[in-house]
């Protein structure tokens, strides 16, 4: 059984489509067919049912898929340990884009400092899909929130990556800022809530449609004027910068977009998300331990 054949099998199991898998693997469908044939011969079992030109993962394939990701991860870790810094490795990271906005540079720098020959690949997925990518061997690392901690398989490794704090943000020419402030401005809840907000209707972490206002703000306690709905955070950020609306944003978005944090008087509620880095490969987790 060849590790490369297992890697190809994992892509085929995910797509159940030779053409799509060939694009992902950068190999011809003929090469993938030969790889699959080698694997099936070595295991003495068919892993897919052939239905015309289509393939469908069968019971044997499902069983192999459960273990193949772990075998490939262990092989990668063993290769890294044996080859040391001289070996070239690809690291695939799956995570929601809202988290990669902050952590992509940190992850890339740490991995490339660990191995200067490495290539880092970022794939954006909502956190549930990111964890599935890891479980199915299509990613080496997933970044998720602690909300999914109970879904992490027991044989995976994880480490706390950091905490995301949400802040009310305004553009520098917003009426509550008046163009003269830098850093933050203190306002009352009464002053704040008369101004329009922009908010997503889909959770940027799990991807579930929860309706406008699903950014962590307690609308039940402090009802906002939700006037603009945007699920693309780059567009949302520009609307805030323009001064058209306020938003409840991750603290790092506020800093990177050079927005003004609005601190609310007598307002103790702060929405936080604890972030986890997860992998089958313990050596990768060790890079991010304090």
Short key terms for the protein model shown above:
Arc Repressor Mutant, subunit A, 10 helices, elongated, eight-stranded mixed β-sheet, 290 residues, alpha/beta, two-stranded antiparallel ribbon, D-Maltodextrin-Binding Protein, domain 2
What is the topology?
Elements lengths: L2 H13 L2 H8 L3 H15 L4 E4 L2 E4 L1 H25 L6 E6 L1 H18 L4 E6 L2 H9 L5 E5 L11 E14 L13 E4 L1 H5 L2 E4 L25 E5 L3 H9 L5 E4 H6 L3 E5 L7 E8 L2 H5 L4
Parallel strand pairs: 3-4, 3-5, 7-11, 8-9
Antiparallel strand pairs: 1-2, 5-12, 6-10, 6-11, 6-12
Helix pairs in contact: 1-2, 1-3, 1-4, 2-3
Which fold does the CATH topology of the domain at 164-271 refer to? D-Maltodextrin-Binding Protein, domain 2
The CATH architecture of the domain at 164-271 = 3-Layer(aba) Sandwich
Q: Provide the helix percentage.
A: 25-40%
What is the CATH superfamily classification of the domain at 164-271? Periplasmic binding protein-like II
Broad shape: elongated
Find the count of extended strands (DSSP E, 2+ residues): 12
Low-confidence stretches: none
Oligomer: single chain
Mean pLDDT: 90
Tell me the fraction of residues in β-strands, as a range.
15-25%
Rg is 23 Å
Task: State the CATH class of the domain at 164-271.
Answer: Alpha Beta
Distance between the termini: 38 Å
